[in-house]
Amino acid sequence: MGSFKIRTDLALEARENAEEEAESLSGVSVEEVYHEDSEVRITKVSITSKNSARALGKPMGTYITLEAPAMTQQDENYHQEISGELSMQLRGIIPELEKESSILVVGLGNRDVTADALGPNVVDNLTVTRHMVKEFGKAAYGKERMHVTSALIPGVMAKTGMESAEIIKGVVEKTKPDAVIVIDALAARSIRRLNRTVQISDAGIHPGSGVGNNRNVITRESLGVPVIAIGVPTVVDAATIVNDAFAKLSGGEGREWMRMQDFPEGFSELYNMYVTGKDVDYEIKQISHIICDAIEGALDMQA
Amino acid sequence: MGSFKIRTDLALEARENAEEEAESLSGVSVEEVYHEDSEVRITKVSITSKNSARALGKPMGTYITLEAPAMTQQDENYHQEISGELSMQLRGIIPELEKESSILVVGLGNRDVTADALGPNVVDNLTVTRHMVKEFGKAAYGKERMHVTSALIPGVMAKTGMESAEIIKGVVEKTKPDAVIVIDALAARSIRRLNRTVQISDAGIHPGSGVGNNRNVITRESLGVPVIAIGVPTVVDAATIVNDAFAKLSGGEGREWMRMQDFPEGFSELYNMYVTGKDVDYEIKQISHIICDAIEGALDMQA
Amino acid sequence: MGSFKIRTDLALEARENAEEEAESLSGVSVEEVYHEDSEVRITKVSITSKNSARALGKPMGTYITLEAPAMTQQDENYHQEISGELSMQLRGIIPELEKESSILVVGLGNRDVTADALGPNVVDNLTVTRHMVKEFGKAAYGKERMHVTSALIPGVMAKTGMESAEIIKGVVEKTKPDAVIVIDALAARSIRRLNRTVQISDAGIHPGSGVGNNRNVITRESLGVPVIAIGVPTVVDAATIVNDAFAKLSGGEGREWMRMQDFPEGFSELYNMYVTGKDVDYEIKQISHIICDAIEGALDMQA
Amino acid sequence: MGSFKIRTDLALEARENAEEEAESLSGVSVEEVYHEDSEVRITKVSITSKNSARALGKPMGTYITLEAPAMTQQDENYHQEISGELSMQLRGIIPELEKESSILVVGLGNRDVTADALGPNVVDNLTVTRHMVKEFGKAAYGKERMHVTSALIPGVMAKTGMESAEIIKGVVEKTKPDAVIVIDALAARSIRRLNRTVQISDAGIHPGSGVGNNRNVITRESLGVPVIAIGVPTVVDAATIVNDAFAKLSGGEGREWMRMQDFPEGFSELYNMYVTGKDVDYEIKQISHIICDAIEGALDMQA
Keywords for this entry (chains A, B, C, D) (predicted)? Predict the structure, then answer.
C-alpha cells in the first residue's frame, strides 16, 4: 500500500508484472502461439479464480493478445492478414455466432483527442445493417441469414455529463442486442506495445479497475448480454514511464517499484499526463481500419 | 392527394402556405413582434386544436420563430443580442425552471454533413455539469442552487442502425432528466430563411410528420418528460425549389402547386436532394455558437 | 447574352448541350468505350481548335470521363476495378512517366463543406515520398527508380485571403515538381452524374471559365509544368435544376433554356446555392479512396 | 557532448537551465512584470550577443513570455484580459504597424494530432481580408485605412513531402506580405507550463535548433520580411520527463543531467514520444481562441 501502482490495461502485462511472485499462481493459464513469417504473437491469458484476478488486478475472463510489430506499417496485405487473424479470434469469443445475432458495436473514447479516438474511428468506418434489415428484411442484402449490426459512440463524460456505462445500458435495454462489442484505447506499460497490440477479452470494461467503482463497468453482468472488449494500447501513463526508468536504472527488470512516498515533490503532476508517439494520427487510422475489417469479417459482413 | 407536398419544418411557413384557406382557421393564433433596431422578428404560432394541427401538418403546440437577417454576419454584439433574446424565449417555454432542473441537451444530425451538423456542433460547445455535481456537489461551481446539464449526440440512423428516438429514450430512462432540449437542422421552404431563422417549440420532433410513423417521434408523450425543440432551417428540398419556381412563373404566389403526376420523367431524382448555400460551414458555426450561448444563458450556466 | 448559362464543369455535358448546333463542329472528337460487365463508360472528348473551345465553353485539351453508376456502392472489388481503370487513363495523360518524375498533388476545395472536401480528402490519404527520398534516397523504399510525390491543400480563398493559384504557383516555383495533379469537386448539370463520374483532363483548372479572369487559372501555361486535373461532380447549381425542370416541362430535352430576364423576381436567390445528395459524406469518402488509389497506382506507389 | 540535452522551445526555460553558469552572462537581459490580480506574469528575455545565443541554444532576438495559470479555465472575461495583453505585446513587436500592413498568418503543425493542432486551429478561426480588399477595396469594410490579412496552413512534412519553410517561402514570394506571423505548438521542459504559457518572439522559427539545419528556418533572413513567432508549449518530451525526475531524485534542481551513455537500454525508445494532458482538446481550443483574438486585436480587425 502506498506504493506506486503501475497502470496497464493489458492482462499480458499484468501477468508479466506479477510473474515472479505468481510463478505458481493457480487460476491463471497462459497459451502462446508465434507465427514466424508474420511475426505475429498471440497470447491467451485465462484468469479463472478470484484469487488470481486479485493478484493480477484484472477481472476473471479470457484475454487474447495479438502483438504485431509491423502493425502500422503501410502494407495492405499484412493488414488483411492481421484482421483475418483477429476475425478468427473474435469468432471464437463472441458467443452463439452460429445463430443469427444482433450485435451492438460501441466506440468508447474522445474523438477530439487523437490517441483516444480509436473507438469512434472504428465505428465511423463500420457497416451497420440493423435499420435496413428492420425496414426491408434480409432481402435488402440478398441474404437468407445474417447477423445485424448497430453502432454507438457515447462520447466521454467530460462532454456528456454521463457515464458511458449509463448511456450504453439505456441503449441496450431499448434496442436489445444479443451481444455488445466495445472498442477502447488502452494504457500499456511498455512503449514498445503502443499501437502494435490488440487485446480481445470477454471480461468487459472496468474503468479504474480495483478502485471499487462498480457503477461504470460495462460487463455481461451490468448489461445482461455478453460483452466483448477490443482494446489497443495507445498511451502509457507518464508516471509509469518514470517509474520504469527508475527500475531499469536500479538494475531491476521492472519488478522493484519505487514507493510513492519516495517520489520527490512535483512528481504528482505526472498524473493525468500520458505519453504518446509523434505518428499517433497515422497509426490510429491504420489500426482503426484493421479492427473494423476484423469485426466485419467475424460477422460475415464484408462486401 | 397525389399532389406535391411542399416540405417545411417551420410552423411559420406551414401557416403561410395554408393562409388562404385558413384565414378563419380556428385553433391557430399568431402573435408577432418586430424589433426595428435589430431587425429581429419574433413570431409565436400556437396550434391548439387537432383540426388546425391537421390543416397545418404540424402537431399541436407553441412554435416561436426568431428571424434575424443579419444572423450570420460577423458581429459579436449582435450575436449576443440574438442569443439573449433566444434565452428569454427558452426560459418562457422550458417548464419549471424556477426549480433546480436537470436538462439533457441532444444534438441530432450528422456531424459529417456540414448542413446537418448543427446539433452536434452546439453540443460540442456546450458546458455540461451533471457529472461534476454528482461527484463533487454544487460546491464545485460555488453555487447553492443550479440547473445541471448533460448532453448527447446520438448520430444518424445510417451510421448507428438505430433510430435517434430509441437511443434518446434509452438514455432518458437511465439518467432521468427533468426535461430534454433537442437541437436539429430543419428544411425550410424559402431560401431566404436559411441560416437566418431559429424555431423553438414545445411540440417535440416528428420526423416525416404526417407519414403515420410514430415510432420515431421525440416528444413529451414518447419520453415522459417535456421536450423543447430548437431548430434552424439549413436546407431547402430540391423538389421544393423547383415547385416554387413553377408557382412563381404561373403567377401564383406559392399557392398553386403542381401535381406530382404532372412532373416529367426524371424529376423524381430531386427527392433526397437538398439545396444549401456556399458558406454553409461558416454560417453553421456562427449559429451553433449563438444557440449554445442561448441555452447556457437560459440555464444560468455562463461563466 | 442575357440568357441563362447552364453551368457544368464536365466537357462531356458541355458537348451534349452543344450537340445539336455542333453536330458538324470541327475541332471536337469523341471516342467512347463501354464495359458491359462493369457498366463503366469511358468517353474521351478532345477539343483541338479555338473555335470548338469557344463553342463548348471549355479550353482546348483532352477530357476523359469515366461514368460508373455503382461507383459509391460498398464493393471493394468494384472500387479496385474503377481505380485500376483510372490509373491506366492517368498513365496515358501524365507526360513522361517513363522517366522518374516528381509529382505535386494538390487538393482544392474546402474541407469543412462536405461536398467540396473531395480534394482535401484525397490528399489526406495519399502517400507522399519526396521528403523521405530527399533525406534517405530511394533506398528508403527499397527501389532503384521511383516517382516521388508531394502534396498540398491550399484551402479556399474565403479562409486564406489568397487565390489557390497564387499559393500553388509559389510552391511550384520553390519545389519544382515535374508535373502537378489537381483534384477538385465539380458542378455537373445532371443530378444523375453526381458522385458517379470522374473527369481527367490535361487542360488544367479554369475557375469561372469564360469570365475572362485569367489570374486564377491553374494550367501548364500558368505553372510552367504539365497540369492534370481530376474532377468529380459533387453538386449541381440550384439555378440549373430549375432551368432543367422548365426545359423538360416545355417539352425540350434540355436545349431550350429560359432567358434570365424572364425569371420571376426572387429567382436570383438561387445563385450561390447548390444541390447535393443526402449521403454526400459517405459518397465523397468512397470516391476519395478510389481516386487516391488511382493516383498511387498510376505512380507505382502502392504498398 | 554526449550528454542528454533537455529540449525546450521556451527561451525562458533555456535561461532558467543556464541560470547558474550564466549568472553573469553578458548579452542576455531579462525584464519581468507580474500582475497580481490576474496572476499574469510577463517576462521579456532579450538575447543580444552570439555568445549568449550559443549559451542558451536560442537565436538572438526578443522573447516575450506570458504565463497565466488560469489560461484554460472557462472564463470569458479572463480570456479577454489575456488576449488584450497579448495584443499589446504583439503591437510592440510587429514592425511598422503605424502604416497599413499586409500580414500573412501561418498555422504550423498537424491538425490531426490534438496537441499539435494549435496553429491550424488559430488560422481556422481567423478573419482574413486580403481577397476582399483586393476585389472591393477597403470600402468593403467601411474603413479608410486597415491592415489586410491572409492565412496559410502548410501542413506537416509527413503529409506534404515538403518542408513548411519551402511552402511558406513560395507563398511569401508570390503574395508579398509585409510581415509573417507564425503560430506553432512548442515543447516545454516543465509540465506546469503546458497550455498556460504563450511565447512571442521576433527570432522566427528554428526547428531542431542547434542541429545545423538551416534549410528549414522561418526567419526574417530566410523570408525577407519580419517574422513574428507565437508559440504555446503543449507537450513535454518524454525523455525530458524522465531526466527531470532523475535530477529531482538526485537532489538536483534540474541542473545535473544524466549523460545519455548512462541511460539503460530501452530508454532510447522515449525519443519521438511526448507527454501531454488528458484535457488537451479542450485546452487547445481555448488557447486557439485567445491567440486568434489577440492577433485580430493587434491588427484592429475585431468586429
Answer: Hydrolase, Protease, Zymogen
